[in-house]
C-alpha cells in the first residue's frame, strides 16, 4: 500500500471544518450568555432622574456594553474549554499533529470570536426594541449625531479585536492548565497579585487594562491588540508542540 | 520492508519504565498480534508508534519517519481503541462522512455496509452507544479508513461472542482485499490466533518473542511422565514452565529443540503446546503459577 | 484593592457558570443540525432587531444651538434685566405657551400658586382696562448628557391659571409629570475612539415663568413663596 500524501494546510482546513460542526455547543453557549446579557442590558447602563417641581425626567441609557463584556468572558472561557482533554481527543481521533491541531483551533477561535463580536454588536437592536416595549417609554432619544457610520465600523472592528484578545488569553491560559494542573491555582493568585504590585498610583493590573482600554488612537489599538493576540497564539502553539495526547 | 522499526525504546511513565529498551521490527503487510499481560507495555508501545506519545529514549520509525508530530504518519495510520473520542454533536452516520473527508483511502461503501450489518441506528450519537457498540463502531472506522498502518488496541472490549467472530472475519476479508500492516493487541491470543501471521510477545516492557504463528506453535512442547524420569531428563533442557509436580508424575513445558523420538522411548509423552498457553507460561511471574499460591496455603 | 478586582471576581463567577453549563450540555447534547438552526434563528432575530430598531418612535436629540443659551440658569442676568426694563415683547413674545385673559374690575388682586414656585413677573400697563392677561412662558429646557445638550422643552408640563373672585391661582400639575426617556449611547468600543466623549452624568437647565399684565392701578399682593418682581416702567 503506497503512502497517502497530505499537506498541512489541507489537514488544517479539514480539522477546522470538523470543529465548526463538533464545537457547535460553543455557539449555543454564546447565545445563552448573550441572551443573559441582553436581559441585563434592559435594566439600563446608567439611570438618572431630575425634577424641577414641574416634571420629573428619568433618563436611562441603554447600550450593548454588557453583552460585549459577556461575550469577552465567553471567548475567554470557551478558549479554555477548547484546550481541555475531551475537546483535544476529538482531533487526534482523525489525522492530526500538534501544529495542525493548534492552527485549526486558532482558526476556529478566530471565527467564533468574530461571530461572537458581531452578534454582540448587533444585539443593541434587540435591546432597544425590548426596552421600548417592556418599559412604558415616552420616547427614545438618541445621541448619535456624534457617531457616524465610520465610528460604527471602527466599533465593530474594535469589538472583534477585544473579543479575540480575550479568546487568545483564554487559549494561553487553557494550554498552561493542560501543561500543569497546579497552574489552575497559581495563575489566579498571580493575576490578583498583580493588583498589589504598584508603580506610582496605579496597580499593575490597572495598567494592563489601561494599555488596551484607554487607547484612543484606533490604529495604535489595532497594533497593540493584534500583536498581543499573535503573541498569545504563538506561545500556546509553542507550549503544546510536545504535548502527549490520547492519555 | 519494515513499516515499524523500534530500537532500544524506553518510555518512562510515572517513575517506572513502561518500555524497557524494547526493540522490534514489523514488516509491511502483515497482521501482527501484540500479546502481553496487563501492564506489559502494549498500549504504551502502540501509542508511541501512532505518534501520540513521545519516547523517553531510543529510536522509533514508522514508514521511515519519526511518528511524533508527523502528519504523514498520522494520515497513514489509525489507532483504534475503546477510548476513541468522537464529538457528541454529530450522529454516527455524520461521523462517517467526516472521517471520509480526512482519510484519502476511505472506503465509504464498506463503512456504511458494516454500519448497516451491525444494526446501528445511524442517528445515534457515539456517546449514547453501549460499550460493545462503541467498540464495534470504532472498528468500522478503523477498517474503512484503510490506513497503511492500522492499529487495534484491545478492539473487542465489550463485544459479545458473535460480534467478535464477525469482527475477525471482517478484518481478515478486508485484509485480503487490501493488504496493509495491521497490529492487534490482545491479552488472549487464542481468540486472534487464526488471524495472525506474526506474534509479538512483550513482557515488562521488553520483547520476549517475535515469531510467526507457525514458529510459535513449534516453539515449545510439553513433556510429561513419571516425575523421577522427567526431572532427570530436564537437566540439559530449557525449562519454560513446570505445570504439575508431585512425587508421582509431572509435566513440564520446555523449548522444542531436541529430537522427540529419544524422549518418547523413555516413556515420556511429548505433546504440543497451544500458543496461547505458551504465552501465559512465558509471561508468568513465577515458575509456579497461581496454583502455587493455593498449594502453599494448604501446606501451612 | 483597586476597583478592577470586583468585576474580575464577577467574571470568575460567570466563567465557572459557563464551565458548569458546558458540562451539563455535554451530557445530553443537542445535535449539530438542531444547534445550527437554533443559532441561525438567533442571528436572524438579532438582524431583525437591528433592522427594526431605527423604526421605533425615536427622536433624534435636538441639540440646542449653543449661542442661544449662554447661561443655563433660570434666566440669565441680562435677560432678566431686559425683562424688568419692559422688554417682554421683544424677547419672549414668541415663546408664550399659553395666555389666559380675565375681565377684572376690582382694585386689588391676590396671587397664589399651587405646585409652582417659579418666577412671576408683573407688568402694570395702561393698555389694559378691567382686564388681566396671564402668560406662561416655556422658554427652554435643556438636558446635558456629558458634552451633548438635548432640548427637552416639549416635555415641559402645562400650567393653568384661574381667577376666583380676587385670587389668581397659578396651578401646576398636581403630580410631577414623569417623563421616561431612553437614551441610546454608543458602546464602549465606539466611544473609546471618539474625539467627543459622550460623558456620563446629566444635568438639567431651563426656564419657565409667568408674565402677568395687569391694569396700571391694580394693587397686587402675593403669597410668600412666590418670587414676584415688577416690571419698571
From TrEMBL, chain A:
Keywords: Membrane, Transmembrane, Transmembrane helix. The chain crosses the membrane at residues 23-42, 62-82, 103-132, 152-172, 179-197, 217-239. This is Uncharacterized protein. It comes from Ornithinibacillus halotolerans.
TrEMBL record, chain B:
SMART domains: AAA. Coiled coil: none annotated. It comes from the Bacteria. GO terms for molecular function: ATP binding; ATP hydrolysis activity. The keyword Ligase does not apply. Signal peptide: none annotated. Keywords: ATP-binding, Nucleotide-binding, Transport. Residues 4-229 form the ABC transporter domain. CDD domains: ABC_DR_subfamily_A (cd03230). This is ABC transporter. It comes from Ornithinibacillus halotolerans.
From TrEMBL, chain C:
Keywords: Membrane, Transmembrane, Transmembrane helix. The chain crosses the membrane at residues 6-25, 37-56. It comes from the Bacteria. This is Uncharacterized protein.
